[in-house]
Specification:
- With about 110 residues, this protein is mostly beta strands.
- The chain contains no helices and eleven strands.
- Strand 2 and strand 3 form a beta hairpin.
Length: about 110
């Protein structure tokens, strides 16, 4: 009998097959063993060029972005240091000099 992979969530060795998925009876997590090997629930955030971003990276804004409630825009070419990745539509939290705390979409930045 072939040995099945342990659960990526709780590391239980008591996994079983159900159709084309593996199932953990202890935590109830289901996954496809043929997937690319991404850790369960870990969202990969990519910039406009397809580079993978991570917490603490520096990015550069690639187009002028209007700021809600302000007459100023964030200009293209603005460097943003020490980003934090979050879940949601605007998946980058950061501080921009002259504006303060902001939430940006990763599609409007490139890795510095």
């Amino acid at each position: 009998m072939a040995e099945l992979a342990p659960c990526p969530e709780c590391k239980s060795t008591y996994t079983y097959e159900m159709d084309n998925l593996l199932v953990c009876p202890e935590c109830g997590y289901e996954w496809n063993p043929e997937d690319s090997g991404d850790v369960a629930g870990a969202a990969v955030v990519k910039d406009s060029n397809g580079n993978i971003l991570s917490d603490g990276d520096s990015v550069i804004v690639i187009k002028n972005l209007p700021v809600k409630g302000s007459s100023q825009n964030i200009k293209a070419g603005t460097k943003v240091k020490n980003i934090k990745l979050v879940d949601g539509d605007h998946n980058i939290d950061c501080k921009i000099e002259g504006f303060g705390a902001m939430a940006l979409k990763s599609e409007f930045v490139r890795k510095a």
